[in-house]
Structures are given as C-alpha cells and as structure tokens.
Design goal:
The chain has about 450 residues and is α/β, with parallel strands linked by helices. The chain folds into 2 domains: about 160 residues, Aspartate Aminotransferase, domain 1; about 230 residues, Type I PLP-dependent aspartate aminotransferase-like (Major domain) (Aspartate Aminotransferase, domain 2). Helices cover about 35% and strands about 15% of the residues. The chain is built from 15 helices and 15 strands. It has a 7-stranded mixed sheet with strand order 1-11-10-7-6-2-3, with helices on both faces. It has a 3-stranded antiparallel sheet with strand order 9-8-13, with no helix packed on it. Strands 12-14-15 form a 3-stranded antiparallel sheet. Helix 7 links the parallel strand 6 and strand 7. Helix 3 packs antiparallel against helix 9, helix 5 crosses helix 8 and helix 9 packs across helix 15.
Length: about 450
C-alpha cells in the first residue's frame, strides 16, 4: 500500500511509547517549559513544547489474571468445549443493543464471514470506501469479488454517498461503508441507495466500538456489522473480531460458516456439514481478556470524546488546520484516531512531511495516515491474476482501471494528519500541548520550508 508515513499500527506502537528518543534525551527533558508557543522550532534546535510521554496502550487489568489462569488450567481453550466466548458474545450484543453477536478470530475474518453470508460471491462487485485500512478491500478480493471504490468526502473522512450510484453495475451485490477512525459514515443516504438498488450493506465498524449514528450503534444499521479487537483497538485482545446483527437467522448462518459449516441455531439443514465453511473461531482466553477490557470501554470512550471536542475547539481557529466534520446524523464519534487536514498553502507551502517532522520534534507523535487505496499495488496483482481474468471480461477490467480515479480521496490522503487514541486518554493540559505545538509551528511557518 502506498504510504505517506509509517503504517497505522507502527504509528500506534510508536506513539504509545512516548515522544521520540531525541526529545527524551534532551537536556531540557523534564524541565518546566515557559512561553511554549514562542521561540525557535524544536526541529531547528529550539526547546520542544513537550518532553513528557503519553498514556500507554493497551492497559492490562490484573484482576482478570485469575480468570485467564482458570481457562488455561482447565484445558478448555477451544470454544466448543468452553463457555467464555459464548458469554462474551452475549455481553457484547447487550452492550450494542444487538440481537446477535458472533465472535471471530479477527476483524478481517469477521468481514469475510459477513460478506460470504450475505451472498457476495466470485464475480460480484462491492462498493467500498477508499480511505481505509487495507483489510476493508482485501476481504473483497478474498471472496473473489471486485472492490469498487466510491470517492471520499474529504471533510468527513468517510465515503461520499453522492459518489456511490455512479459506481453501481449489474454485478454490484453490496455496499461496504467504513466508519473509519471511529467516525460514523452517512448511513441514511447509503441505506436509501441500497434499498433502491436491492443491495446488501455490511458495515465495517472495526474502528467504531460504541460509535453512533442517530443514536443507534454503528454496526447495527446495515444487514451485518463487523468489529476488530486487534491490539491497538479500544477493545483489545491481541487479535479478535465480531459480527453483529439484528437478523438472528443471518448471524446463525455466519456462525455456521465460521465453524467449518456446522449447523447452528435456526440454521439446521440436514447433514453434519451441509454448507461451505472455515475455521474463524475465537479462543476462550481471548474472550476473558475482552470481557475484562469491556469494563473500561465506556469510561475511556467518554474521555476520548471530551478531549477530542476540546482539541477541536483549539485547532479550528489555527489557519491551515481543518478538523474533520461529522456527517449529518453522526451522534457519537469514538476517535480511534483523531484526524485533521493540513493546508500547506497557509504554512508557507511547507510540505506535510515537514509539518509532521516539526510536530514530532515538539513532542507530539503524529502520522500522515492512509495512502490512496485505489492505487495500492495489490489491485493490479488481483486484476492480473488468472482467476480475475476468468471472472471478469477484459473490457470490464480495463474500464475498472480507467474509472478508478478519486480526486477527493487523493486530496484527503495528501492532507490528513492523525493523532492516536491513547493520546486522547490524557489530560486537558495534554490537549493544550498539542494545540500549542501546532500554533508554534504556524507562528514559525516561514522557517518550515
């Protein structure tokens, strides 16, 4: 994937360990900093705004250790002979207000399970957001369908519903909106388009635990919703995922697919293994970790939201800094990453990379975020494969390449700046440090280029 900086997970790891080593080693580290917004930029040898580290992630609750040991000593590590995964599924469904939940091995396997279950098959097309982690479109390739990108709304960082219908063809089977960074997509117009064209909707809510659209939890608006519990996530277990929905029969079919095709619940066709399936099961000890982490989820989510709102109030008045704009109807963002856009024309034309370096030197870890998915090398790898040349005509693949132009997403990828979710678990003073550092860089913008 084209990357403008480090990967999301590399960035999360770096940010949670504190500021860059050069700053930590500074003779000024730990000293009280006065007039933080004035003076020479740290990248030019000046005093950094911040020398402290940031909250670490993930956070382990030692009170869960007895339960983990109990699972390990029982020998019931497999969900088929244990009870913890089933208990987690019940609790997570209750947390979201879902009728059904299926725990899986990862967010990626949750997406594959959901796409298979709603009937996305080889030769189909799925419309998907281009501003997202690679898994969102890689899973479409995994079911041998074609990911068709609809352009982004650069203001909201999410898919632009106005660009969806022009991408629909006779082969389109589904829409896969992504609540990226924990920011709810514009679900009302997306669902209206899906109803009009008789398409299914699978929500990628892998970064959106407890996010809400019109006071309804993301993941419960479409046919199925998918979540990730990877180590960087707000609800972490190293790896893990979930499929949720209010159609219990549909989730039963998901359960069968993820468990080698075995019947489950209302899905009871004759035979021991009557359907295709695979092994995407979660392990028992992962469920115990998740139930422990759930205890802090709501409190952490509130704190991130409060800090994000305050940070936005500070940043929105800095020329050239454009915080994201929530979609109409988005009633709760959960900020897996805090995004804004950097307008270099108001920073003396200094490239974004130079801004990122200057901000990092001030003690504020940051990233340029995702590159343009529609230009990812894995697309050509798939399109040139034997299977895709059998499934799609040369004319369709050529047209796909010609139409795969997304100017607003290109702009977003060129301007985006991220802060990680653990930074939002800090104090109001921590948020001031971020804003003060950006103000300092703006005031010294003539020295950036």
């Amino acid at each position: 994937m084209n990357r403008t900086n480090v990967s999301r997970r590399e960035f999360l790891t770096t940010a949670s360990t504190g500021v860059v080593a050069a700053i930590a080693a500074s003779p000024l580290a730990g000293a009280e900093i006065l007039n933080k917004k004035a003076g020479k930029l740290a990248c030019a040898g000046g005093q950094p705004v911040r020398t402290k580290g940031w909250p670490s992630w993930p956070v382990w609750d030692r009170s869960a250790e007895d339960e983990i040991l109990a699972v390990l000593r029982s020998g019931n590590w497999f969900r088929g002979s244990g009870t913890r995964v089933t208990e987690f599924e019940k609790r997570y469904a209750e947390l979201l207000g879902a009728k059904s939940c299926l725990a899986t091995a990862s967010g990626t396997t949750a997406l594959i399970t959901a796409l298979h279950t709603v009937g996305v098959e080889a030769g189909d097309e799925v419309i998907v957001s281009p501003y997202t982690f690679v898994a969102s479109y890689n899973v479409i390739f995994m079911v041998k369908a074609l990911p068709v990108f609809a352009d982004s709304d650069a203001e909201t960082f999410t898919i632009d519903p106005a660009r969806i219908e022009e991408r629909i063809t006779e082969r389109t089977r589904a829409i896969l909106p992504v609540h990226i960074l924990g920011l709810p997509a514009a679900m009302d117009p997306i669902l209206a388009i899906a109803r009009k064209h008789r398409l299914v909707v699978v929500e990628d809510a892998c970064q959106a635990w407890l996010a809400e659209y019109k006071n309804q939890k993301c993941g419960l608006l479409g046919d199925l919703g998918c979540f990730s519990f990877q180590n960087s996530k707000h609800l972490p277990a190293g790896e893990g995922g979930a499929v949720v929905g209010n159609d219990e029969a549909l989730v039963d079919r998901c359960h069968a697919f993820h468990n080698c095709g075995r019947p489950h619940g209302a899905f009871q066709p004759p035979g021991s293994n009557p359907t295709r399936g695979t092994n995407f099961r979660m392990q028992e000890f992962q469920a115990v970790i998740l139930m422990s982490q759930m205890k802090r989820l709501e409190k952490d989510t509130r704190l991130r939201g409060e800090n994000a709102q305050y940070l936005t109030s500070r940043l929105q008045d800095i020329p050239g800094i454009v915080p994201f704009k929530p979609n109409p109807g988005a009633t709760r963002a959960v900020y897996h990453l805090y995004p804004f856009r950097y307008k270099k024309e108001l920073f003396n034309q200094a490239p974004r990379q130079r801004f990122l370096e200057a901000l990092g030197a001030e003690g504020i870890p940051c990233s340029g975020g995702y590159g343009p998915a529609n230009k990812d090398g894995l697309l050509e790898e798939a399109l040139n494969s034997k299977s895709y040349r059998r499934l799609f005509s040369k004319e369709r693949l050529d047209r796909y390449r010609q139409e795969n132009v997304l100017p607003r997403n290109d702009q977003l990828c060129a301007e985006a700046v991220w802060f990680t979710q653990n930074m939002l678990l800090g104090t109001r003073q921590d948020m001031d440090d971020i804003a003060d550092a950006i103000e300092k860089i703006y005031e010294n913008r003539d020295k950036l280029a």
